Amino acid sequence: MCPYQNPEDRIPVLQMNSDLEHAQLELLSARCAVHQLRLQYSSEDLARFGCREVLRKSAQAASALHQFYADVENKIPPSNHAAAIQPSPELIARAVGWISTYLQEERDYYWPVAAPVGGLCRARMRPYFASSLLDRVRIIELHGARVRIPEFFAQIRAFGFEPPEISHMDSVTFLDVVAFNQGLSERALFHALVHSAQIDILGLQRYAELWVQGFLKSGTHFTVPLEVHAFTLASRFLPPAMEGFSVEDEILRWVNEGRY
Hints:
- This protein has helices spanning 10-40, 43-49, 52-75, 89-110, 119-125, 131-136, 153-158, 186-202, 204-218, 225-237, 247-256, and strands spanning 115-116, 138-141, 171-174, 177-180.
- With 260 residues, the chain is mostly helical.
């Protein structure tokens, strides 16, 4: 949580955390890209046949990042997540209901003024998503306006958890409606469509249950498996893959393997 000693500090602190989250997204994308590299090539082959200058610069960048974040980590006060109140089954069920209701209500609110995915965006997404999903999803650009912060976030904070800063996210998925806090970007659209596909396959109730379970385990939305998978798949979309892949098949694989 981020205490504000002075109300005037709120805006700079929010901006700092927005920048921090953006950097975390970039790092997660890089981590996913490196993971794919590790799956395809051994360290011996990379060292022997890889471009030495690229390898050297990559290693230097990784080392510098490690040193920077290690220094910051050493200064972080002890987390209160471990001391957070462990929610009862009843409260967990209530949280699932909160999320399900919020997503449905916001979907119904934006649907009449949202537009279909068309043109170049649809063409770019077609190799990855089913046509039936692309036919149904609608998008809306808020251009500086922000999605509504749900009232139950205050109760989440009361139990020692910090909910995601959804007003600072590029996009938020409300079932089959995607709201962009600023303008549309292909990266944010792809990520959002992964969540639409997850909801399609899992159902809203199960999606909300898995989101709550993942959030309770990690205490941050970036490490909820549903989010991790969206980031992972997006890392394969940018830069564009030589060939498309089925996001739905990837989601079903994670479901069958119990990775959510």
